[in-house]
Specification:
heterodimer, A: 377 residues, Rossmann fold, seven-stranded mixed β-sheet, 11 helices, 13% strand, elongated, B: 109 residues, alpha+beta, four-stranded antiparallel β-sheet, 4 strands
Chain lengths: 377, 109
């Protein structure tokens, strides 16, 4: 604290001197009260402000996604009734995951649940948009799912915001404020995804199907399992069976079931499985970088990966993964040029893997994993 | 806050204050006020930059299966990779297909 000097002789000086002492004391007290007493309160108020701003932006995102869904449904679905209420019902849909206290057989249960949900979602969309063809129904389904995600994010954040406000709990508020920028970034990516789905543009996640479709172009194709197409081609004197989800509608198919079927069709002939997929990169890495590893490269809940791992273990088939690195945002928004160009590099990698790890005459499965929206075959 | 800062700066240069301590105090308050204003401004700027959504431009590469014809056009609704777009205008025998669909993405800063 600064020493205060008083000029007793001078009236003006003494007046200002006293005023100085008083005001300095006042300011000191105010300072202490502000930073120690109300500091947390003030900070909380500021955090709540930030969250409120973020929440409003999330609301804007979800509304524009919903408007886009409505507009697209009306444009290509040609509904006879107003699709608004039905879309609202779809937006609030939920899935109850099975009991995991006794986890034996839970993969089958989850798989079944997801199948049912998928089927129902598709049927609902078809009913809302009777004018859409099958690939448009797929795209619309993806679009509805993206706006569902945005709606859910908004609801969860609003829940915690109101909870924090109500209980005055600084920890809820701090956590929310800290995570909000990441959540907003993700929500923004979902909005970009909704736009891509509405127009049927390929997304970054589609690199796997893109590579598979380059391999199976102009070959005889057949459908196996749910929404998966398969074609045979020759590569370096090896028989390559390529598979991908059926395009160009937005779809990931069930590659686990398809790989299982193909392995069972060619018992003791398949010498390796190569899976091509997009993988989330670390911040700082370049998008479109290709790297390879071992194991089933497939995202999602894990049911498909489980099936592939089980089948590969049963028949002692090695599973290799070739991945293309991209950020989460890039994976669900229209495909970037460097990611598309990585497709050629992936094919080169597959070739060298085949040359190194198999003999001429072997049968190899190449599975293109990901959402095939905007990619035919 | 800016007003508070200006007010105290005004007091300091008003010349009515004899005590250097009060002067220091007022200057400090003014500096704190301006710092607060500056911080708030930069925060706002950052918020706006994150929030701006730039619509992306999506392009389709059209290639001929027979000759070297290659064209890049804007994505049209209904386009998909390996969609056939009819006969080539250059060699009149090859089929034109969409070979790739991509976006350039925003330019690097
Ligand atoms: Zn041509």
């Amino acid at each position: 604290m600064l020493p205060v000097s008083l000029h007793e002789n001078d009236l003006l000086g003494s007046l200002f001197g006293n005023l100085g002492t008083i005001s300095q004391l006042l300011f000191t007290v105010l300072f202490i009260a502000l930073f120690f007493g109300f500091g947390q309160k003030l900070q909380m108020r500021q955090f709540l402000w930030d969250i409120d701003k973020g929440l409003r932006r999330l609301d804007m995102f979800r509304n524009s996604a919903k408007d886009l869904t409505l507009k697209t449904v009306k444009e290509i679905g040609k509904p006879t009734i107003d699709p608004g209420p039905s879309i609202n019902v779809l937006m609030e849909q939920f899935l109850i995951s099975p009991v995991d206290m006794d986890p034996a057989g839970i993969v089958g249960k989850i798989d079944h649940l997801l199948d049912v949900r998928d089927e129902k979602f598709k049927e609902d969309v078809r009913r809302i948009a009777p004018g859409a063809d099958s690939s448009q129904v797929m795209n619309l389904e993806n679009l509805v799912e993206a706006s569902w995600a945005l709606n859910t994010i908004y609801r969860i954040i609003r829940h915690f915001y109101l909870m924090g406000k109500k209980t005055n709990s600084i920890f809820i508020i701090i956590q929310l404020q800290a995570l909000l920028p990441l959540i907003i970034q993700e929500a923004e990516a979902y909005l970009g995804a909704a736009k891509a789905f509405a127009e049927g543009q390929p997304i970054g996640d589609g690199i796997g199907p893109l590579v598979a479709s380059r391999l199976m172009k102009d070959k005889v194709q057949r459908k196996v399992e749910k929404d998966v197409v398969v074609a045979e081609t020759m590569m370096e004197d090896r028989r390559v069976i390529a598979l991908k989800a059926e395009g160009p509608g937005g779809n990931v198919g069930k590659p686990g079931d398809a790989i299982k079927t193909i392995i069972e069709e060619n018992v003791d002939k398949v010498s390796m499985v190569i899976m091509v997929d997009a993988a989330v990169k670390f911040e700082g890495e370049n998008s479109g970088e290709v790297s390879e590893g071992i194991g089933a490269a497939i995202g999602g809940v894990g049911t498909e990966r489980f099936k592939i791992e089980q089948e590969a273990t049963l028949h002692k088939i090695p599973v290799y993964a070739v991945i293309v690195k991209e950020s989460l945002q890039e994976a669900i928004t229209p495909m970037k040029k460097e990611i598309m160009e990585a497709g050629e590099k992936v094919i080169e990698r597959i070739k060298s893997l085949i040359l190194e790890r198999s003999k001429p005459g072997d049968t190899i499965i190449v599975a293109g994993i990901g959402n095939t929206i905007g990619i035919g075959q | 806050m800016a007003v508070v800062g200006l007010y105290f700066i005004g007091l300091v240069f008003g010349g009515d204050i004899a005590d250097p301590n009060i002067m220091i105090l007022y200057v400090t308050i003014a500096v704190v006020a301006f710092t607060f204003v500056l911080l708030t401004l930069t925060r706002m700027r950052r918020g706006i930059r994150i929030g701006a959504y730039t619509p992306v431009k999506v392009l389709s590469i059209v290639k001929c299966g027979q000759c070297s014809f290659k064209q890049i056009k804007n994505f049209a609704i209904g386009d998909f990779v390996f969609k056939t777009l009819g006969k080539c205008t250059q060699c009149t025998t090859g089929d034109l297909t969409i070979n790739g669909i991509y976006t350039e993405g925003p330019p690097k800063k």
